[in-house]
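Supplementary Methods S3. Input chains for the assembly prediction are listed below.
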Amino acid sequence: MARYGMAIDTTKCVGCMDCVVACKTENNVPEGLNRDWIQTIVNGEFPNLTMEIRSERCNHCTNAPCVSCCPTGASHYHDGGIVLVHHDLCTGCKACVASCPYDARFINPEGYADKCTFCVHRVEEGKDPACVSVCPTYCMTLGDLDDPNSEISKLVKSKNNHTNLPEAGTIPNIYYLIGDNND
Amino acid sequence: MIEITNTRMNHLIDPSLHIWGWEISVYLFAGGMVAGMMIILGFFFFKGREKEVDCVCSILPFLSIIVLSLGMFALFLDLEYKLHVFRFYTTFIITSPMSWGSWILILVYPVLALSVLLKLPKIISKLFPKIEKISAQLKSNRKLVKSVGVFNMILGASLGIYTGVLLSTFQARPLWNSPILALLFLVSGLSVAAALVHMISKSVYERELLAKADNAFLITELFIIILFVIGMVTSVKIHQDAITLFLGGPYTAVFWIFVVLMGIVIPLIIQSLAVSHKVKHTPLAPIFVMIGGLILRFVIVNAGQYSSWY
Amino acid sequence: MNSISRRRFLKIGAATAGVAATAGALSKFTKQGVKISSNIPEKGIYTIPTYCDLCFWKCNAIATVRDGKLWKIEGNPIDPMSKGRLCPRGTGGVGSYYDPDRLLKPLMRKNNRGEEKWVEVTWDEAFTFIADKMNKIKSEYGPEAVALFSHGIGGNFFKHLLKAYGSPNLAAPSFAQCRGPRDAGFRLTFGEDVGSPERTDIENSKFLVLIGSHLGENMHNTQVQEFATAIERGTKILVVDPRHSVAASKADWWFPIKPGTDIALILAWLNVIVNEELYDKDYIGKYAIGLDKLKQAVANNTPEWAYPITGIKAEVIRETAREMARYKPAALIHPGRHVTWYGDDSQRSRAIAILNALMGSWGRKGGFFSPVSLDIGAYPYPEYPHSEKGKVDNPDNKYPFAHETITTGIREATISGKPYPIKGWFVYATNLMFTLPNEEETIKAIQNLDLMVVVETLPSEITGWADVVLPEATYLERYDDLNVEFFKEPFVAIRQPVLEPAYETKPGWWMAKKLGEKLGLENYFPWKNIEEFLDTRLKTGGYSLEQIKKVGLIKGERQPIYFDEGVTPEFPTPSGKIELYSEQLAAYGFDPVPRYRKHEEPPTGYYRLLFGRSPVHSFGRTQSNPILFDMMKENEVWLNKFVADKLDLKSGDYVVLVNHDGVRSNRVMVKATERIRQDCVYIVHGFGHTSKGFVRSRGLGASDNQLVTKYKIDPIMGGTAQHLNFVSIEREA
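Predicted structure tokens for the full assembly:
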């Protein structure tokens, strides 16, 4: 069974938001809402500064609180561990929105909980998600983390990386690459 | 110095989570109050003391149904996809407190209905003599009455705990993420329910009995709040950050003044004086307790949404 | 992670949330049903290749229509420019069609100029009015008295119209307000321009220097893609910028240089490289002249001399000079693009050119490649009438090295009537109110006009000053001229309509042709329609319209683009060599080798106003695009954290910027940050719209151009330097 994840190379990402725009057009995300976004973290004092730029979205956690708290089974794990929402099961109770430590979910104006789908409709056709396919810095890679020969597994192995809030216990599947691993 | 910027601007999430408004606070208050009422009335049914406490046993079951229905209506109002409300009952998700909650609520209604039958308000007995007959039959079965008492207590406790668990399982919101919350909401529900009886009961005996009980609940509640705060302060960083909302942060005044002082300490003093006959019983203290209980839900719901991992 | 700073950000969010709440109103015309191009079926998914118009880079794109609705726009995978990936603006191009503020009908002015009161007219009424005025101007002042300001390839048909009419006064702000000094500086050194798209081979560079150039925020697609490749390949990167730009965060060295002192830094590098003989000796020996004179000229410009001027430590300057030379010839000192800063910009660009010359990077892999193109002929038009008077913008060759028309020169002539009067302006797709420095002068010039025509898709500020507004269809609804690109690979590309023009909007070519016919210039528009025009041009290269419509672009064979691959080194300077010392400049009394001259510094309480780009907007043209509006609604003023503390300001507070002439900006949000020096502030260009037509974006953010009242003209080529303005900061009342 595949376990889809994403590796995002923060050393290359320039935070241009092309991923955000591409997601919006690909998935018809309504005005004023975004399924992905850019987080920038600056450390230090002028002029000794470091900056990490990250394209963020749903982490498609292996232990997803949004799935476990959903009272109707609308939030679920799809093939490959992709966390999705059945629109027709969702009551819009917003428990999942509250449960996500990454604040990745929102309520679609049609009433259901909405978020990144890893562009499952594209991935199942063998294509990259819209955000990955458009990125001008080629900083994103989607792939099977369970396959040791996949590009993503190699990247995660060969580069220093971190996930977001691993201490929240959600087992996130998006890895942020922060430079070569020289071990 | 760390600077964090984030381009996300999703309403309901940014600038901080604010998905739940008055509806959920009111629902949690109503649920807690009903839980308290069920435990109290269940206790007296179980003990076979329904004659001693007329108000508790004849009014509370009926009132519970009304309050619970109002609470559930508030919950319904909060749903973004109201037509799908039936989806709560097409499945049971063992990991979801909300799923537990919706099924508990379904079980509560028949038990409350039975309780109503066991001690019919006089108007109903007069208007519907047939129901009066059924009631008399049921009442005569002491085992049944005892069982109804037990079910009331069990379901009441479940409901009360559930209102807290609903929030406390959200590890994404550090302020909510404390098991003490379940106890706090349970005891607060009990104190509100007791205060209600204290306020509306016509019998002096019943009033004083429940006022005494309420004092015990309030003392317990105070103790739990202190535990809650200490628990947060001595926990990991995110919990420490979260509790600053009550310790110098934006919710400090409303929490300590309205919830603790007005909602617990002052009524506790008044009621203590009242039960020792130093002052007269007035509706003031119970009203304070109830308002305090309502504000507690608002404060916890709002402040919890404000707290996050970042 | 620090919860306190996160909360600070959250407050910023709260301030903009109000804007988001009002968003969501779909455009007035899309409600009535979008009309897709007639040759696309109503059901199913169809793709149409075209090229993008969100900026001037002209990436090749593929638009996808799903069930009769424009769905998305992606890069064309065979495109050497986009390599199949558009930038955020290109991806958001969908929104340019759905922009609720679009101009939809021809308009004529009702009251005074600038009052933005209009009467809707028919196209014929508009053309008749314009033609009458143009004929009158021609008979009274001559055809030269009508000038054209344009931006982008869409302007080609209007250039043609004006040339046929008899005017030589055709200008684009991209010269005098943007890249002009760079091109002059490189021409004086190598005999050739850097071009657009730039001929920089960033992906193969091993040492990349960016001076004020903020790739990543500045989204020139191919350059950003190559920049990312360079990062991946471990290219050494050095960024010179008073601001910790995105590029600076990726760099091995960040020089937070004192603004206005870049020349001193470059001279110090030259000094080290010449003295330590670190330059490419073989290359310089073969191709360059003037090394000795260069050495003499920079003899005193030691790193120790540069340190107190620039704030960059001498040993770091020396170390980086050596490091740079270690990677020659793949050491690329990027020429930048918007380089009109301090008035000596041609000289700074020349210093950069000389540094590149010493690295031997011109014509070399990892430096500057030699662009190639396909041989596609122009349309065989009759010869244009000859103008006796010549151009108006540069009288007596005042700016001897201006090789393009100077917009501000035309403006000056319009005000003064000298050397001859200008009575009509055509403005195509360039918002002069956001582009030309000193708004007041622009307005003064406009008040002298007998005719002011603006062709635009959006109600930009300049349209407010028009007599006639001609609403153009967006790039998704029209054909344009072919893009015969000069780049790494030769190709020709087509822009073709995906959708029918909304409402009464029309393509530019149609307007030019109709107006030409009204003016009796039919013989200059012999083609029946645009398809015939394009096909005729394509045939000259052996291609056809039918062929290119399907694929979007046709590539020629790969050709050598480096000297090492067989490109013949040619330097079309007077000496035929790279001129490290410029006799040309000496002849006009300019410094033959760049010299550092001190610039005015902000007085106490004032900060130098710097401006730049955001990756999600193009100039002032995209703020109303609903998708891009969502990405960034307003700009922020970057303020050093220490300064902000001193002024008791924090991120999210609103302030007003007041310049040295008392001009007050719109309110703008503070970004208190460690990422900028204390002596300057920074805003993203293009915000602070004032046009009534911009329903949502009006009044959001501050406009830098409004605050640029002071400007200096580059004496070499006439560029207008705009980083000379100082602002003080007042809390919003």
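Chain A is about 20% helix and 25% strand. The two ends of chain A are 30 Å apart (CA to CA).
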